[in-house]
Amino acid sequence: MGHEDDTRRGDPGIAAVPATIERLSAPAKEADIRGLAGLLVDAVQSGAAASFLATLTREGAEEWWRSMLASAAPGAVCLVARRDGGAIVGTVQLQPSWAPNQPHRADIAKLLVHRSARRHGLGTRLMQAIEAEARRGGFTLLVLDTRRGDSADRLYRRLGWTVVGTIPRYALDPDGSTPHDTVVFYKELPL
Hints:
- Strand 3 (88-96) and strand 4 form a beta hairpin.
- The protein contains four helices and seven strands, in the order E-H-H-E-E-E-H-E-H-E-E.
- By secondary structure, it is of the alpha+beta class.
- Strands 1-2-3-4-5-7-6 form a seven-stranded mixed beta sheet.
């Protein structure tokens, strides 16, 4: 899934990152593509299990975002967190199931928080916002996965997600050679 911010609740030394969470409108502006690409590269360079290897370039990340956003299914949502001035420091996606017999289900993907904004609750805010978007979209079952032991693993547990299980050696770390386990989660949403 990606990197989150591992917020410590109740710690008075941790201030919230001033950021506004908004739905990315289509078609995405070039500045937003560049901002999302920079965020993805930052996540991969900091070791996040975000589906990419350390060889990911900014240009490659821009192309991936363009393609992903252009081919998004109806009902898909991409949220971004912006600092004052518009810089993107976080994102998360809602991807509806393609299967005709699963109109109630969606996947949560690419929860990413920039290193400069981690540990301030932004990942929690993004997850709460995407769950609200899912409810508005009529989805009652959400699914996601993340690298076992990551801060995102702890975040999802804290936010009430249920562990389905762990798949060993599911993917490689950004170094391209170290396999890691993934934990699969689900969450039921009341309408």
